[in-house]
Amino acid sequence: MIDYDTIKRVSAELYDRSLRGIPADTRKALAAMSQSDGDDTARHTLRIMLKSADTAAAGNHFICSDAGVPVYFVRVGTQAQFSGNVRAAITDGFDALVATIDPPLLPHVTHPLTQARGYRGPGMPIVTFDMVDDSDVMDITCSPKALGSGRWAALEIFSFPDLATIERFVLDTVIRAGSQPCPPVVIGVGIGGSFDYAAKMSKEATLRPIGTFHPEPMVADMERRLTDAVNKLGFGPMGTGGDSTAFAVNINYAAGHGFTPVAVSFNCWINRRTRARLHNSGAVEIVE
């Protein structure tokens, strides 16, 4: 069975690890941009970002002081077997990490009504669960949300929008955000479904590996078109100019009513994303 202690340990380790390095695909994309960007300052900035990430990983330091708050996407196989409470294990893992992590975490968990800050609060850590048929695995992805990856998200509901309307909203959201999400960014877009489901799809879209596209050609074409358009806006890495504003624009969509929510969210250049799969056998598989 997948036990409480394993979930507690692995969920805490995923959060810790997400703060100290960048995913392999993100490093590869940064390196490519540092060679291809047409702006001298942008290329220099991208090389600094690469050095910062490599130095943090080598010294086991945080890349950014804004560790954000722990956010988990958990996919649970219908054949997975558990001993102990799953949600409590993730919460207790965060509490244990707060007590032991070096350097200490800043108290970013904020009460939305009083603005009091600490490490505990309603709904923290933020966890969403999905069921997966014909699977005996618990798949956990940790993607902490800090100011750069959380503040500039947006959602609007349209009535029977065409593609041009949807794409214009995505670009308008990116323009309003400017360089404040700390580009280059991964941009997630959720289209359709309901108000809450569009936001969920948008967040999940930011987790897709860089360089992959939606399996439907029409949607993949939108992704390429929007990525090109964003990179022509000129914000560039950390707002220094150039054509390296977005690693990718990733789109998820669902059918819905005539009203169509469109949600846009960001992952900053660190692209925090760690993942593990827990098996009924007790094995833990580190995916990224």
What can you tell me about this protein's structure?
The protein is of the alpha/beta class. The chain has two domains: 2-20 and 62-146 and 272-286, 60s Ribosomal Protein L30, Chain: A (2-Layer Sandwich); 147-267. The chain has eight helices and 13 strands. The chain has helices at 4-18, 24-36, 40-59, 86-100, 147-150, 163-177, 195-205, 217-231; strands at residues 2-3, 71-77, 82-83, 109-110, 117-118, 126-132, 137-142, 154-159, 185-192, 246-254, 259-267, 274-279, 284-286. A five-stranded mixed sheet has the order 6-2-7-12-13, covered by helices on one side. It has a four-stranded mixed sheet with strand order 8-11-9-10, sandwiched between helices. It has a two-stranded parallel sheet with strand order 1-3. The longest helix is centred in the first third of the chain and has 20 residues, at 40-59. The chain starts with a strand and ends with a strand. The model has no long low-confidence stretch (mean pLDDT 97).
Percent of residues in β-strands: 15-25%
Task: Provide a count of the helices.
Answer: 8
Mean pLDDT: 97
Question: Main β-sheet, in a few words?
Answer: 5 strands, mixed
**Helix and strand pattern:** EHHHEEHEEEEHEHEHHEEEE
Helix content: 25-40%
* Biggest β-sheet: strands ordered side by side in the sheet: 6-2-7-12-13
Brief characterization of the structure:
This protein has helices at residues 4-18, 24-36, 40-59, 86-100, 147-150, 163-177, 195-205, 217-231, and strands spanning 2-3, 71-77, 82-83, 109-110, 117-118, 126-132, 137-142, 154-159, 185-192, 246-254, 259-267, 274-279, 284-286. It is of the alpha/beta class and 288 residues long. It has two domains: 2-20 and 62-146 and 272-286, 60s Ribosomal Protein L30, Chain: A; 147-267.
